[in-house]
Write a structure and sequence with these properties.
Layout lengths: L6 H43 L3 H18 L9 H19 L3 H22 L3 H4 L1
Helix pairs in contact: 1-2, 1-4, 2-3, 3-4
Length: 131
């Protein structure tokens, strides 16, 4: 029969494995959703460089829909301040697309790229993030 003295160490090991798998799953989710958003914003960037504003607006709307889906889960994993920055970038990009301002739109897309790339990097388990 299972001895009482093994219960606590076994429970602690199971808890550790659960926490590690939860952390790993969080990183995978953040990586995948960030990659999806980056790929979508690159389509907007290419359309702007081609001066195809209709296509750029269409890609923006698709990207915004993808962001709205991701936005449901990211607050559980990241700081709200980072979410606010991304929301602000989306608002600026929409305005620049409406005014067909390619310079400002591209600049803001690059800012949005850096925000999105920063999130999985900052949440990844590394020595830099621990210390």
């Amino acid at each position: 029969m299972f001895e009482q003295k093994y219960f606590v160490p076994l429970a602690l090991i199971m808890l550790l494995l659960f926490l590690l798998s939860l952390g790993w799953g969080m990183n995978v989710f953040l990586d995948r959703s960030a990659a999806l958003l980056l790929k979508a914003t690159q389509k907007i960037e290419l359309a702007i460089k081609e001066a195809n504003w209709t296509k750029a607006k269409k890609h923006f709307q698709q990207t915004k829909k993808e962001w709205d889906e991701v936005r449901k889960y990211w607050p559980l994993l990241i700081h709200h301040q980072e979410m606010d920055r991304i929301e602000e970038s989306f608002a600026k990009i929409k305005s620049y697309l409406d005014h067909q301002d390619s310079n400002h739109a591209l600049a803001e897309i690059y800012v949005l790229h850096s925000y999105i790339q920063h999130i999985p990097e900052s949440k990844a388990l590394s020595l830099q993030n621990i210390f």
